Amino acid sequence: MGFGIKLNHRKLLDGMLDICGVPPEKFRTTCSSIDKLDKQPFEQIKKEMVEEKGLSADEIGTFVKERGQPLELLSKLKQQGSKFLGHNGSVDALNDLEILFKALKVSKCIDKVVFDLSLARGLDYYTGVIFEAVFKGDAQVSELWNAKVKAEYFVNKRVIKHIDHARESRISWMVIVGEREMNEGIVILKDIEAAKEDKIPRSSLVEELKRRGKGRGFGEESCSHTLEAEAEVEALDFFSLPSPIVASLSSSKRVIKHIDRARESRIPWMVIVGEREMNEGIVILKDIEAAKEDKIPRSSLVEELKRRLNP
Questions:
Q1: Three-state SS across the chain?
Q2: What are the tens digits of pLDDT across the range 198-244?
Q3: Number of Cβ within a 10 Å radius of residue 125
Q4: Which one of 10, 53, 74, 84 counts the least CB within 10 Å of its CB?
């Protein structure tokens, strides 16, 4: 018995319903109907949407039947003439999913994922990727884990310790959400370096982080490249190396703290990937004990480590 993961994006779901003419006040109830498609045939769901909820279900039916290999379906949805391209929220979702799917591909786990437009969640705290893991039996697919991705709300009142940890780890921003913020639909975005904080609408948090990040050398494109590089390096066959070798991956420009931690933990090698390395198809392999580093083609990293460990 194996497993699979169905995946969708809340912004893409909202865009689909908007394109189909579903009024915003009926988004939630429509999602509850779509969510039954893995248990009931579409004709039965269509009857519910038309007769009980007063919706036009034909166009919705066309969309929710779309499912398949992530990058292939993504390419189809981004083709010229796609209705999604005329909807800003849907375009944002497709761009986010492209980054995710590329990372899954280089991590060699994309074969477990199905991009499924019928995966629907209507509650307000679903703002990004939605996924659901299922067992695959011989006769049926039974739900294993309904893992709805949502914001990881930070409700601990004692935040000082967490702020100190963020400062020590050179984390630029911290998102804090308490009961009041949940009720008001906002988050507190704390700038660790400047010791300032602002209240941000929850729906605009990602865009606000992108905007602020550009001023500190981050940005959507560099974040995308970094994610792909990290996924590719982490997917390499480190398990074939002699024990107890550990590789420490860092894409941060401030690597001194990571090097100190590797030295304290007696980690012999450190793999560093930045935007330049990503563009050149290499990694920096650092010998922690000798304090030396070399540029290595990314594809030959594991073999190079084997050679050095068995001279």
A1: CEEEEEEEEHHHHHHHHHHCCCCHHHHHHHHHHHCCCCCCCHHHHHHHHHHHCCCCCHHHHHHHCCEECHHHHHHHHCCCCCHHHHCHHHHHHHHHHHHHHHHHHHCCCHHHEEEECCCCCCCCCCCCEEEEEEEECCCCEEEEECCCCCCCCCCCCCCHHHHHHHHHCCCCEEEECCHHHHHHCEEEEEECCCCEEEEEEHHHHHHHHHHHHHCCCCCHHHHHHHHHHHHHHHCCCHHHCCCCCCEEEECCCCCHHHHHHHHHCCCCEEEECCHHHHHHCEEEEEECCCCEEEEEEHHHHHHHHHHHHCC
A2: 888 876 766 676 666 655 544 444 445 555 555 555 555 554 554 34
A3: 14
A4: 53
pLDDT in tens, 269-292: 888 877 777 788 888 888 888 889
Which of 73, 60, 67 is closest to 34 using CA atoms?
Answer: 60
Helix then strand count (H, E) for the chain reads 13, 12
CA angle 74, 75, 76 (to 5 degrees): 90
Q: 121 among the known binding-site residues?
A: yes
